[in-house]
Specification:
Length: 292
């Protein structure tokens, strides 16, 4: 998510070697050395970042915030994949934990057009063309598959293909790519039930109002292991044919912080930090069947 001074530190020895004993106040072109490089690096220095509050990085997420993305409904503790990623990005940008402030932003409000009271939002928000018209996204920090959850003893649990799902009564949270996946990929015979949040969807499954519900795969692992132990993951699939779904950090449209965050994310990918955080906080998905 963040990045900054790396390009300057790398280029400085090369520049010094090139100029040798030449005067230190000019280059061969007659201009001050490193002018453009230094200017670019300074844009991502903490003091120069376009922040909601000077010296503070303001990060938003929804409440309640669920595992495995957050732990104990407390984004500030650094536990859970998205909390850990947020702090890793903050550190890359040059902020300590104490310089990070969390605010609440309902999921369905996050990608609405207009001013934001946060620097970025992290809340399993899929990058989609429609959303990108009114907000900006960072590069992706996680590739997500959709998962189908049903009660173990139900007929829905026996589904082995997307075609099998067409006959079922399905449900998902409003405004999510899970709901889009039902409508655009599964295309069930019956209209899906739409819920305000994941809790309502889970309760509908328990009450028999729906045969199955959809969520991203890591959340499905938590639901089936902890929240509804007598449920199962029927299978997984990519919600958009030919394209991996990715979660991105969300920004107000036109926010100049995005390139610096992308630089930070690139560093976290290259040094293995994101992989390590995924292994620690997100469940292994290799044994979940793929629905086609």
């Amino acid at each position: 998510m963040r990045a900054r001074r790396i390009c300057v530190l790398f280029s400085l020895p090369v520049l010094l070697a090139a100029v040798g004993c030449a005067p230190t106040n000019v280059t061969h072109s007659g201009h001050p050395p490193q002018a453009s490089t230094s200017a670019a690096a300074n844009v991502c220095a903490p003091k120069n970042l376009p922040l909601q509050t000077a010296g503070q990085l303001t990060i938003a997420t929804d409440s309640p915030a669920y595992p495995p993305w957050f732990v104990h409904n407390d984004p500030t503790n650094g536990k859970g994949y998205e909390s850990a990623v947020a702090y890793a990005v903050a550190h890359q940008l040059g902020f300590s934990n104490g310089q990070v402030t969390w605010v609440k932003e309902p999921f369905n409000n996050s990608y609405a057009p207009g001013p934001k009271d946060f620097d970025f939002d992290i809340n399993q928000i899929s990058i989609t063309p429609a959303r990108a018209k009114v907000v900006d996204f960072s590069d992706g920090y996680y590739q997500a598959a959709q998962a189908v959850i049903a009660l173990k003893k139900s007929a829905a649990a026996k589904a082995t293909s997307l075609a099998d799902l067409k006959k079922l009564k399905l449900g998902a949270q409003t405004g999510t790519t899970s709901l889009e996946a039902i409508t655009n990929v599964i295309k069930p015979d019956a209209q899906p039930l739409v819920f305000q949040d994941t809790n309502a969807a889970k309760q509908a499954l328990l009450n028999g109002q729906v045969d199955a519900i959809l969520s991203d795969l890591p959340t499905a692992f938590y639901i089936t292991a902890v929240q509804i132990p007598h449920s199962t993951i029927v299978g997984q699939f990519q919600p958009v044919t030919g394209r991996q779904e990715e979660f991105g950090l969300l920004f107000q449209k036109g926010n100049k912080l995005v390139p610096c965050v992308n630089q930070a994310l690139a560093t976290l990918k290259q040094d293995g930090t994101l992989d390590q955080l995924q292994k620690r906080w997100l469940s292994d998905v290799v044994n979940v069947p793929v629905l086609k």
